[in-house]
Amino acid sequence: MITENNDLGFIGLLKSFTKPFWVASAMELFERWAWYGLFAVLALYLTGSIDEGALGFTHVERGEIMSYVTFILYLLPIITGAISDKIGYKLSLIIAYLLLGIGYYYMGNVTSYPAVFIMFLIVAIGAAMFKPVASAIVTKSTDNRNSSFGFGVFYMMVNIGGFFGPLFSAKLRDEYGWKIVFIMATVAIAINLIIVILFFKEPNREKNEDSLGKTIIKSLKNIFEALSDMKLTLLLLIMVGFWLMFNQLFYTLPVFIEEWVNTKPLYDTLSNYTPWIAEFFKNKHGGINPEMVVNLDAFFIVILQMIVSTIILKWKPINAMMTGIFIAVIGIALSFYTSNVFFTIFGILIFAIGEMTSNPKFSDYIAKISPKGKEALYMGTYFLPIAFANLLTKWITGDLYEKMSDKVLLIRKELSTKNIELPQLDENYTKNNFYTEAAEKLQMTQEQMTTHVWNNYHPGNIWFVIAGIGMLTIIGLVIYDQVIKRKEKNS
Q1: Which CATH number fits domain 21-405+459-490: 3.30.390.10, 1.10.10.10, 1.10.10.60, 1.20.1250.20?
Q2: Residues 292, 297, 303, CA angle at the centre, nearest 5°?
Q3: Backbone angles phi, psi at 262, to 5 degrees
Q4: How far, in whole angstroms, is CA 354 from its chain's centroid?
Q5: Which of 35, 112, 177, 287 is most buried by its number of CB atoms within 10 A?
Q6: What is the pLDDT of residues 399-458, one digit of tens each?
Q7: How do the domains of the chain map onto residue ranges?
């Protein structure tokens, strides 16, 4: 059982953190601002109507871009962590920010599938350079007294950036178009470049005399050696399920809300009590943008993370993960269960509590078992289940969503029952053109058409698959915990 001293108290814990910890946290905030500012709207940008400045890709194409690239992003820290240990954290961060800035900026200036894929891949390589370094700095800046709380604070900073990024991108894209989102992300990365150059001091690291190539080979060998420990490997495999479920909040839910959830009642409610907030969030269709609804996850974490981190401070990591995932399953199920926006928001709140309970404890556990001098490398193992979950996500957010929940496909099914055929989507016949003509053919308003198709084809049933994956993860952790306890008892 891994525990830590909680005698410092809340204020004492905050004061115990060093300057490198707060510099790393600030850089994490802006990096996440850029990432989530784009990623929260990326699904909408990739599949949105061309006449609104989006790209009009299919859900399968969207799934391929988002899943394959993020798979590479989270797999690379195995190598980039070792590179960072060799060349130094400061140089690694500078390289990361240059790649991120170039990728974000040019991603907003290309429109073809291959070009978007390549630019997003450059972003992913930059993010992969950044991730293990940030985690390693936090690990080196904390100790047994404050590491669990420190990762909670760090995770809160992640979500401050994760909240303000989509907040600004939602407002800016409505007023200035899609390109401003990519410019915003580039500016956030530029701020980080200034921070690392002016304020970041290289921490003490064990010097590595090996060549870069030998360092990478050695890191791969170390990873395989670590994975030969079935206790670690089984845990990582089980956690693929959690991340696969978690991903749907950002990959699938924004599109689901865009296509099926009427956000106008949310605007109406806000306008009755806080008119200025309602007007700030109002989009050009009289509702609230989907990314702003999903962004409540980050908002809830920002305001509740300290409380949750304090409550679970002495919990065993496995217990915290099981409890958190169970709460998250309930939340994600509610988010997809109905087309009622208030149920969606309540589901996101429940999901956020589960996320706050499980995720930092997993990070903390990996950090505690990292050998000295190889923190960045071993924190990279944390990303392995995330990587494979992203690879598998393409099946849910792409193939499965297109079959079960794609609004265009389900409307076409309804039209076919009346022997009505409409043209395929292209640059001249956009998604908005299709919705308008389909509603006319069905002699309904677009809202009536959406409700009719929802009631007849049940696109929300995708929640069964998503929640089922979460429940399988919990069952896996329960069995895992019992097996580990039995082995420790017998040893």
Answers
A1: 1.20.1250.20
A2: 110
A3: -85, 110
A4: 14
A5: 35
A6: 999 999 999 999 999 999 999 999 999 888 999 999 999 999 999 999 999 999 999 999
A7: 21-405+459-490, 408-457
- Collapsing DSSP to helix, strand or coil, 373 comes out as coil
483: tokens are 């097996």
CA dist 253 and 276 (Å) reads 26
Place of tokens 């910890």: 21
pLDDT of 276 over the 70 cut: yes
CA 488/CA 490 separation, integer angstroms: 5
Check whether 391 has a pLDDT greater than 90: yes
Q: How does pLDDT run across 156-197, given as a tens digit for each residue?
A: 788 788 888 988 998 899 889 999 999 999 999 999 999 999
Burial 312-322 (b: 16+ CB within 10 A, else e): bbebebbebbb
445 φ, ψ (degrees, to nearest 5): -75, 165
Q: Yes or no: say if 481 and 318 are a contact pair by the CB < 8 Å rule.
A: yes
- Identity at 444, one-letter amino acid code: M
* CA gap 90, 83 in Å, rounded: 12
